[in-house]
Every structure is written in structure tokens, then in C-alpha cells.
């Protein structure tokens, strides 16, 4: 046996998390609802690997000897740099380029998977998290962007998030690029500074106007003493950027008019405003007015977006880790990225897509009481009272009969006595346990203990009359009737859960 000094300390790496059964099942159900919406719109599934060649992941990655800023990278035995994928979009661009001649175009696909960020972890900020994306590649029309916005709205409602609790906010990078050109940040030599401006604007909902003003200038010192270097703009340029982000009006038409004023005389910006006007018109015609909103403060952080950008924001308040009431915020977004596939093919390939943050959306649904955990019940547990071969054979037969009837079941496989076995069943969330000692075996019977009803009776019923009139928490039945009686108990429990959910 290893000494205490030799033992390895069990510890979870920073920025990562373990996932419990309830969360896994709830996530699967949530993703099934998202998948239904994607399928309804005609999208098809595809899967790409977790690892890509680093140079395939996009121009937003830094150009240095070891490209590990923002990504986890390593060298293969042929000295090629590989990276864990940063998102699901860049790998899709590689897949489309590699299979360009064989896939239908426009190519409409969806995929879910883990992505990895080599960044400083913090509250709600993980190094590994799951995204659920949908993309259309090969559609140059802004109609494809409008469709993405409408589909995101439909996803929110399919998950039970009611209108008024969410909004799909839309902007256009061409409009912002027009502003950046006007303040002298055009050209490849200013790519890094442009990205810093985008990241600063992206923090508007978190730090407010003054915080963003600092990030656009020399930088910002947060409460912990950490300093974030700013974009280094002068006061006139900062004012022009903030004027753009505050151009939102009370209606889409008013916002578009404000943007036209801000961007007057800039060809690229004017083109972007026209695209926003088209998205506004299409969404309104389809009945999404108020659900999809033009908002100049939306800036997706990645450099590869080239046109419309969108964000799904939840507008209800939650309490943060400091005890403050704050708006929940973004649970997903996306935009047009016409340059990603083109990097591989040397020809224009238009593309647009959305990405849903699965873990963050689950947190939102928990806050709203919309996360479905209704059928997260454990298996029926057959207790082991006697351990001779004949008795174990009978217990195993019971388990087999329950499983063949489609009922989750297990025989206790530990070495403990009855009391620890009952504690085990309780920890497993078992709906009931089956008990057969020597006396029950001689009589061809079993006892079935309803753990859910037993707990309810113990907690709620105080007088003997109510106890006698309630559903029995433990019954003795013929062994041959085990499956039928267990099914009755499970059906009664399911009815109780359904009735309880109606009263909430």
C-alpha cells in the first residue's frame, strides 16, 4: 500500500469541471430540443475532430513560435503544430474546403462538441465548454443571416424562454469597420489594434460606457488590481467609437437612421447599414419584430466576422457571485464569416452561422426553472439479503425480468448489510427497492419499498388516519407479480411528479 507521502493528490485542473448525471441528462434533453429546431430549418449533422492543424484555425491566432495564446497547442512527431479547437466554426471551414466538390451548396449543417480556450479561468469562465452550432456555407444573401437570427429566437422559445426574457441583437461588422477606417485603423498593420477595439466594445454590457472608454484608451485597472492594456485610441477616436455603439433607437428604423448619420460618407459602412435594414425587414415580415433587434453595441470578439453579427441575450435579472442583481446576458451568437473557407480555396465562399453556449444556456434554464430533470430517477435496486448461489440467482432473475420489461434495475453488488444497502439505494435516487429474505423466499414473495412515497409520508404526514389512508410505502406481493407491481409504483410516482409540476 502506498504511503501518505506517495499518494497522488486528486485534484481537478483549473478551468475544468466534472459533470453529474442530472446535468448530463438535462443537457441531452436541452440539446435534443435545439436539434429539433435546427432540423426543422433543414440543417444536417456533421462532426469534426477536436484537434486541427494550428494554421487551419484562423487568422485571429497570434503569429509566434509557439502559438499557444488562446489555444492549447502541441507539436506532432512530424513537427507540425496541432491545436485543440478553439471553436466549431474554423474546423467546419476546413471540412467544407476539403469536401467542397461533394457537398451540396449552400451547405447547411449543425454540430455539437467541446471547444477549448487557453485563457485565465474565473467564475463562469471555463477552459473547456460545449457549443452547439449551425452554419450555412455558400449563401451570399443577407437572407441567410436573417434566418440565423430567427432560428436563434425559435431555439429560445423551444426551450421555454418566453418572449420578453430574450432578444436577438444584430449588428454589422461592415458598419464598425467603416468607423474603424474613419479613425485610421484600416490595413493589415492595424489588425491587432482593431481586435483590441472590438474586444473593448464587447465588454460594454459588463463594464459600462466608462469601462469601455478606459479599454479603448490607455487601459483598465479592475478591482482585483489586474490591469488590461487598452487599444490606445485618442479622445476623438474614442468618442467616434462610442457614438457608434450608442446609436440604438426605440425602433429598428430609428436605429438604422442613426447609423446612417454616424457612417455618412463611408462606402463600407453604408453597405453594412443597408444589410441591417434588409435583416430588419425580413424578420419583421416573418413575425419576429421585437424578438430580433438592431443593436450597434453588439460586437463578436473574433476577427474573422465580415458582415452581420448577432447575439442571443437573456434579459432577466440574476444574482451574481457578489450578490448583485445583473442581467443574465449572452447565451450564444454568431455572424457572417466570408473569409474563412476562402483561406483554403483562394476564391470567395460566403458563410454565416450561430453558436449556442450549452453550459451557459443550462445555467439560464436553471434560473428560470425550465431545466427538465423530471425523469432523473435512479434504478430499482434489488437488495441482497442472502449471498448463497441459489439466492443470488433469484435476485439476478428479478433484475433480468425488470430490465426485459424496460425498467431500470440493478442488483446490489457491494458487500454491506441491509442498512448500508438502503442508504446506497437512497443515494442512487432509486424509486423503490426489492427485498427478499429467507421468509419471503419460502413464501414465493417479495417486499417492495416505495422510497419516494416513504420519504413523503415521513416528512408530511403526522396523524395515523392520514397515514393509513395514503398510498402504502411498502407492500408484499407474489414474486411472479414483481414486474407489474413495480410498474404500478413507478406510474404512481410519475403521476405525482406531473401533478406537482402543474401546481408550480
TrEMBL record:
Task: Please name the CDD domains in this protein's record.
Answer: HisRS-like_core (cd00773), HisRS_anticodon (cd00859)
Name the SUPFAM superfamilies for this protein: Class II aaRS ABD-related, Class II aaRS and biotin synthetases
Q: Indicate the principal place this protein occupies in or around the cell.
A: cytoplasm
At the top of the EC hierarchy, this enzyme's class is ligase
**Locations listed in the record:** Cytoplasm
Q: Specify whether Membrane is a keyword of the entry.
A: no
Q: Which residues form a coiled coil?
A: none
An example of a Pfam family matching this protein is HGTP_anticodon
Q: Which UniProt keywords apply?
A: Aminoacyl-tRNA synthetase, ATP-binding, Cytoplasm, Ligase, Nucleotide-binding, Protein biosynthesis
Q: Its Gene Ontology biological processes?
A: histidyl-tRNA aminoacylation
Query: Can you state which reaction this protein catalyses?
Result: tRNA(His) + L-histidine + ATP = L-histidyl-tRNA(His) + AMP + diphosphate + H(+)
Q: Which PROSITE patterns match?
A: AA_TRNA_LIGASE_II (PS50862)
Q: Which GO terms describe its cellular component?
A: cytoplasm
Limits of the Aminoacyl-transfer RNA synthetases class-II family profile domain: 1-379
Residues noted as binding L-histidine in the record, renumbered to the chain: 87-89, 117, 131, 135, 300, 304-305
* Gene3D superfamilies xref list: Anticodon-binding domain, Bira Bifunctional Protein, Domain 2
Q: What is its EC number?
A: 6.1.1.21
Q: Does the keyword Calcium apply?
A: no
The Swiss-Prot or TrEMBL record annotates one GO molecular function as: ATP binding
Question: How does the record describe its quaternary structure?
Answer: Homodimer.
Q: Which family does it belong to?
A: Belongs to the class-II aminoacyl-tRNA synthetase family.
UniProt cross-references to HAMAP family, sorted A to Z? His_tRNA_synth
How is this protein named in the record?
Histidine--tRNA ligase
Taxonomic source organism: Phyllobacterium brassicacearum
Lineage runs: Bacteria, Pseudomonadati, Pseudomonadota, Alphaproteobacteria, Hyphomicrobiales
Amino acid at each position: 500500500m502506498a504511503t501518505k507521502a506517495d499518494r497522488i493528490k486528486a485534484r481537478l485542473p483549473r478551468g475544468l469541471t466534472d459533470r453529474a448525471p442530472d446535468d448530463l441528462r438535462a443537457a441531452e434533453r436541452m440539446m435534443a430540443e435545439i436539434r429539433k429546431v435546427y432540423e426543422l430549418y433543414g440543417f444536417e449533422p456533421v462532426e469534426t475532430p477536436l484537434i486541427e492543424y494550428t494554421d487551419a484555425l484562423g487568422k485571429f491566432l497570434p503569429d509566434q513560435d509557439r502559438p499557444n495564446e488562446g489555444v492549447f497547442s502541441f507539436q506532432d512527431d512530424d513537427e507540425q503544430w496541432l491545436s485543440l479547437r478553439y471553436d466549431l466554426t474554423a474546423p467546419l471551414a476546413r471540412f467544407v474546403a476539403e469536401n467542397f466538390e461533394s457537398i451540396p451548396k449552400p451547405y447547411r449543417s449543425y454540430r455539437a462538441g467541446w471547444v477549448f480556450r487557453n485563457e485565465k479561468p474565473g467564475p463562469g469562465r471555463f477552459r473547456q465548454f460545449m457549443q452547439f452550432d449551425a452554419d450555412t456555407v455558400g449563401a451570399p444573401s443577407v437572407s441567410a443571416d436573417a434566418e440565423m437570427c430567427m432560428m436563434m429566437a425559435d431555439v429560445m422559445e423551444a426551450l421555454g424562454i418566453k418572449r420578453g426574457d430574450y432578444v436577438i441583437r444584430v449588428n454589422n461588422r461592415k458598419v464598425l469597420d467603416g468607423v474603424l477606417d474613419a479613425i485610421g485603423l484600416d490595413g493589415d498593420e492595424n489588425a491587432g489594434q482593431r481586435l483590441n477595439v472590438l474586444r473593448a466594445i464587447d465588454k460594454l454590457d459588463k463594464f459600462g460606457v466608462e469601462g469601455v472608454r478606459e479599454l479603448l484608451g490607455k487601459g483598465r485597472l479592475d478591482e482585483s488590481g489586474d490591469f488590461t492594456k487598452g487599444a490606445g485610441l485618442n479622445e476623438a477616436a474614442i468618442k467616434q467609437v462610442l457614438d457608434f455603439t450608442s446609436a440604438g433607437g426605440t425602433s429598428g428604423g430609428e436605429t438604422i437612421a442613426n447609423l446612417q448619420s454616424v457612417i455618412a460618407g463611408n462606402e463600407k459602412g453604408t453597405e453594412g447599414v443597408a444589410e441591417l435594414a434588409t435583416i430588419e425587414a425580413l424578420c419583421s415580415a416573418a413575425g419576429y419584430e421585437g424578438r430580433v433587434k438592431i443593436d450597434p453595441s453588439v460586437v463578436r470578439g473574433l476577427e474573422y466576422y465580415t458582415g452581420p453579427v448577432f447575439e442571443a441575450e437573456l434579459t432577466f435579472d440574476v444574482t451574481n457571485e457578489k450578490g448583485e442583481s445583473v442581467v443574465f446576458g449572452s447565451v450564444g451568437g454568431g455572424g457572417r464569416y466570408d473569409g474563412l473557407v476562402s483561406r483554403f480555396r483562394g476564391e470567395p465562399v460566403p458563410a454565416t452561422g450561430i453558436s449556442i453556449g450549452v453550459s451557459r444556456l443550462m445555467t439560464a434554464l436553471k434560473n428560470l426553472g425550465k431545466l427538465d430533470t423530471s425523469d432523473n430517477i435512479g434504478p430499482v435496486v434489488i437488495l441482497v439479503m442472502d449471498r448463497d448461489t441459489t439466492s443470488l440467482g433469484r435476485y439476478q432473475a428479478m433484475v433480468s425480468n425488470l430490465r426485459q420489461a424496460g425498467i431500470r434495475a440493478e442488483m446490489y453488488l457491494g458487500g454491506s448489510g441491509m442498512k448500508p444497502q438502503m442508504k446506497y439505494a437512497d443515494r442512487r435516487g432509486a424509486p423503490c427497492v426489492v427485498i427478499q429474505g429467507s421468509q419471503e423466499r419460502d413464501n414465493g414473495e417479495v417486499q417492495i419499498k416505495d422510497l419516494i412515497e416513504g420519504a413523503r409520508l415521513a416528512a408530511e404526514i403526522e396523524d395515523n388516519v392520514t397515514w393509513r389512508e395514503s398510498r402504502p410505502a411498502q407492500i408484499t406481493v407474489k414474486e411472479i407479480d414483481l414486474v407489474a407491481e413495480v410498474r404500478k409504483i413507478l406510474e404512481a410516482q410519475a403521476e405525482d411528479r406531473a401533478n406537482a409540476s402543474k401546481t408550480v
